[in-house]
Amino acid sequence: MRVIAVGDLHGNFPALWRLLKAEGLADAHLRPTAALRTGEVRLVLLGDLVHPKTLRDYERLTGLSPYDPEDPTHLRLAAGAQIRELFRLKGFQEEAEGHVTILLGNHDEAALKGDPILQPPPPAPGVPPRAGGQAPARGLKRWMASFPRELVLEGVHFATWPRALAPGVRRSLLRSERAQDLVVPHPRLRGAHGYRFGVYGHVP
Hints:
The protein has 204 residues and is α/β, with parallel strands linked by helices. The protein has 8 helices and 7 strands. The protein folds into 2 domains: 2-135, no CATH class; 152-200, no CATH class. The model is unreliable at 120-129 and 178-182 (pLDDT under 50).
């Protein structure tokens, strides 16, 4: 089994589609390829689909330059762009016949709980506070609420952030210099949980 894992999109959907086309999971029309539909390859998105982090990220998302986080029109366009891409991803997952797993990230959960889909928790340095935004449509909410928090494939543990792991293992992962590499081997994963290794997002 070949698995492509992608973490922490934060609204950078163009990068996701480029990656899926490059890896042979999406065709030119952004539909799942036969390799994905048959399970030859699986896709795991590690969560945090929404909430760009910087002004530059919002400019890339909306095509507006400069992006003004205090302009109501810009806010609506940014929220609408995320909602449009979420619907596209929802359709892609449905056509992939069970071979795309999307995990629930903390930013996705915040959007579900009623925080505006546009508004991240504290802004990145240099980014003014934002107001406004738009909640996900009902169909998107139902879809996002169905996301699992973790997945285990052939002894490999996938999660946005490994809440289920023992606290000592979580603390050591936070201190790991390889955390940004996404795949974190750890001897205690096997001893405490039976996992061969873990694949985690959440860390910048």
